Amino acid sequence: MASLIRSGMRSLLLTAALLLCCLSCSAAWSGGVDTEWYGDGSARSYVISAPEELAGLAALVNAASDDFTDKSITLSGDIDLNGRQWMPIGKFGTTPAKTFAFEGILDGGGNTIKNLTISGTGISAALFGYIGVSGVVKNITVTGSIAGDYEYLAGVADINRGVIERCENRAAVTGAAEDSRCAGIAARNFGRISYCVNSARVEGGEAAGIGCENGGYYPSGLYLAERAVIEGCVNSGEIIGKAGGRATAGGVAVTANSYTLKNCKNSGPVKGRGNSALGGIVAETNSRTDAKSSSIDGCVNSGSVTLEGDGSGSGVGGIVGGTGGITKILNCRNTGNVSGPNAPVGGIAGRLGGEAGTSISNCVNSGTITSSYIDGESYAGGIAAINFLLIEDCVNLGDIRLPGSGVSQNWTAAGGVAGANRGSGGMIRRCASAGRVESFSTYRGGIAGYNKAHDPQDDEGIITECAWLDSSAPRAAGDAETTAGACPFTSEQQQKIVTACLLVPFSATVAQNGAADFTLELFPGTGAPFGSHVRELSAAVTPDNIAAAATKGAVVAVSGKSPGSAEMSVRVKFCPSDLSDPEFGPSETPHDIVLSAGINVVERIPAAGITLDKSAASLRKGETLTLAAAVTPADSTDAVIWASGSPEAASVADGKVTAHAPGTAVITARAGEFSAECMVTVIDTDTHYGGSGGCGAAPWSLLICLGAFCLQLRKNKK
């Protein structure tokens, strides 16, 4: 009887398994379309749960049945498109009658559209072909592959005139044609992209992590007054531009015309080749004179920016390759290495040109800048390779290199702030450089390598209230024995010189009821007294129902109130060092500086546990150790808070333990209601470790083991 029951159970389980397999097979999308969820179209909200239904949305929009104005659609879960060829939702046609835009709200609810696949030839390849002025697409992650001989390719949308927010692209985007425009989020952006992420590789004729073409010109060539905005976005994917002779690759954007880029970050490598513009944030700006000025504000690049091949006529920059029209670059920072042969290569901008009003202000570079001379123009500058307009209140900490050989040096120059400061419009004021300037060219200067105009009859460039590290270059300007507006400083004096201030980080994600700290950092002097240079510091968040901010010393503490996006404005009454003063003391008249930071408040995902990679460790006095904490679940929003039970013996900051005096300290890492501990034993510097098996090692090994045993007892009692 028992064997009969067991046999029956096995049959039942086998039948259930077969049914599950059949259900799984039937769930795989075969390319079909379902519009039953739409009904008669009178509803204002809909829920989509299957790939056929998502394809039904595309069919309804593309047939002009409904553009979904004032209607919302929500995804109830992940949707797997099964690698089938996808038809984008909406499209831009040659006439209004052939143009179909999505004007509704699509809320992904944090779900993923998996295995989005587009291949072949055509105009547009993306999840959406056209998001209209009223359209909103949010809270979606896309995976898969978008590739082929298309003109415009992207993970989320070809054309965006509406809003794309909190979306992530993980789908590889590859344009086969040299004139293809590719991006992780939107190929053509004339609207707003907020708090989006691209973590995938993007390669094409022109390639960008977030938006390829932004603002100003519509595909028909018509100029629109629509101002493109990209804010709080992050790219970590590799960006590769294949086209030559124009703007090619940018970590965030390729071209920008009548736009605002604010609080964006790139950490992915940016690569291009031959006679093109590359930028860690934007390849090239080209704002029209009949449009409002455009800005790149509070952006940071840590990815390498590399031009390969002959770079004649190009521009390569840590933030922007080249500028046109009226462009303001402010409060930005580059830490990535920037390089290119026969090219203007700069820490912030390759070429700073365009209309009057264009400027770089309150920016810092600490990346290594290299322009290799082969045959042609080669300029290297800590802030800009070539400056035709205004650089002010900036700091360079990176080394400047212009290697090469040859007889002609007329078009080669390297400088701590600018390779060439072109008169009569070129001006550098209140800037400091502490990076070494290495160049085969005779035009090598602590501030500017070359400080004259193209036309000998024009005035030379202006350098005023500037200073450079005396050991980095023999003089301020490489083409002048003396420069009245600049003076050298020693490495000891550098510690108290301050010419710029930045908010770190530039944006943050905060859990609801959670907290995050921003710090106002002064550059270049790390030893400068904060209170002498910052007279007032205040912060406000808009809208104030999303988050709140409070200041204490150099720290701005932010607390999350409710899920949503907000902008924090930090106002600083800043007194930079008076570089005309031999003592480099703070200036008497403060400058009013407004810094901004993006704040993204999300619902709290509580921690379920935390572990450390070590439960015990020993350090000599003065040594450091970095502990790694692992929080589960991985997407928990609870921040890891570190503490030392005996900071006089060993202190901890962000997991980095520093040994101060002999003794023991329990290092605690806490996430939410959970904690993990590591017993750190500090050994006096004169104490002999005793190697791996000597007598001297035994007492300390015993003490460490005893400490670990005590910790385990404490955990067992909990």
TrEMBL record:
<feature type="signal peptide">
    <location>
        <begin position="1"/>
        <end position="27"/>
    </location>
</feature>
<dbReference type="Pfam" id="PF02368">
    <property type="entry name" value="Big_2"/>
</dbReference>
<keyword id="KW-0732">Signal</keyword>
<dbReference type="InterPro" id="IPR003343">
    <property type="entry name" value="Big_2"/>
</dbReference>
<dbReference type="InterPro" id="IPR008964">
    <property type="entry name" value="Invasin/intimin_cell_adhesion"/>
</dbReference>
<feature type="domain" description="BIG2">
    <location>
        <begin position="606"/>
        <end position="681"/>
    </location>
</feature>
<protein>
    <submittedName>
        <fullName>Ig-like domain-containing protein</fullName>
    </submittedName>
</protein>
